[in-house]
């Protein structure tokens, strides 16, 4: 009986010893498991989206257009007149209105006068747009007209060949040209003069 008890005690000790070994082995197994590590990040700067500063740098390369007042200068004979939208209540300057550069400006610095100009872009068909190159300059009581289709000019034999735009060049927001003007307000017979004109559209205005 004592031997049996001793054997049982030894068996219990062996079982306990084996169980303890399993626990330690289990701990070792956990220790042997690979741990998750963060892979080193590569240099993906080339694939990264542009930063705000990059976008701003690209935008800074382009120059703003259509800023400031619109202006025009006309020389008729030996007189030069300046026109501007600055401070104007009513003014218009559209670089491309269906293929037409349209300018309507008052005289600069509050002077008594105005300019109305229609200049066709290269390739614009007058028959399609219903407009030809034309310019009218009002200075006080004088109306200087370079437009053979003006109602005051058309059909008047005295003005034939004396009222037209002789040359015109439209480039972006700018127009330059030459013209032959007739003063339709003259009471001293036919008053005609050659001249030049130029205009630049700043901020676009329709009124």
Notable characteristics:
disordered N terminus, 207 residues, globular, alpha+beta
By DSSP (H or I, 4+ residues per run), the number of helices equals 3
Mean pLDDT: 80
What sequence of helices (H) and strands (E) makes up the elements? HHEEEEEHEEEEE
- Number of strand elements: 10
Shape: globular
What percent strand? 25-35%
Uncertain spans, ≥5 residues at pLDDT below 50? 1-8, 20-28, 33-40, 55-64
Q: What percent of the residues sit in helical stretches (DSSP H or I)? A: 10-25%
Beginning-to-end CA distance, first to last residue: 123 Å
Q: Tell me the major beta sheet.
A: 10 strands, antiparallel
Using only C-alpha atoms, the radius of gyration works out to 44 Å
Structural category:
alpha+beta
Description of the structure:
The protein is α+β, with helices and mostly antiparallel strands and 207 residues long. Helix content is 21%, strand content 33%. It is built from three helices and ten strands, in the order ααβββββαβββββ. Strands 1, 2, 3, 4, 5, 6, 7, 8, 9 and 10 form a ten-stranded antiparallel beta sheet that branches. Strand 9 and strand 10 (192-200) form a beta hairpin. The protein starts with a helix and ends in a 7-residue tail after the last strand. The model is unreliable at 1-8, 20-28, 33-40 and 55-64 (pLDDT under 50).
């Amino acid at each position: 009986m004592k031997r049996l008890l001793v054997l049982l005690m030894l068996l219990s000790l062996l079982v306990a010893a084996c169980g303890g070994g399993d626990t330690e082995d289990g701990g070792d197994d956990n220790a042997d498991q690979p741990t998750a590590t963060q892979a080193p990040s590569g240099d993906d700067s080339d694939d990264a989206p542009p930063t705000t500063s990059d976008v701003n740098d690209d935008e800074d390369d382009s120059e703003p257009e259509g800023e400031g007042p619109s202006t025009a200068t006309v020389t008729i004979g030996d007189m030069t007149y300046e026109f501007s939208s600055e401070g104007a209540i009513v003014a218009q300057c559209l670089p491309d209105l269906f293929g037409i550069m349209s300018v309507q400006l008052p005289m600069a610095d509050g002077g008594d006068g105005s300019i109305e100009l229609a200049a066709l872009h290269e390739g614009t068909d007058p028959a399609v747009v219903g407009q030809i190159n034309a310019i009218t300059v009002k200075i006080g009581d004088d109306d200087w007209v370079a437009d053979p289709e003006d109602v005051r000019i058309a059909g008047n034999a005295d003005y034939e060949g004396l009222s037209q735009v002789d040359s015109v060049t439209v480039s972006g927001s700018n127009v330059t040209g030459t013209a032959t003007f007739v003063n339709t307000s003259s009471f001293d017979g036919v008053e005609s003069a050659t001249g030049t004109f130029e205009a630049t559209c700043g901020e676009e205005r329709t009124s």
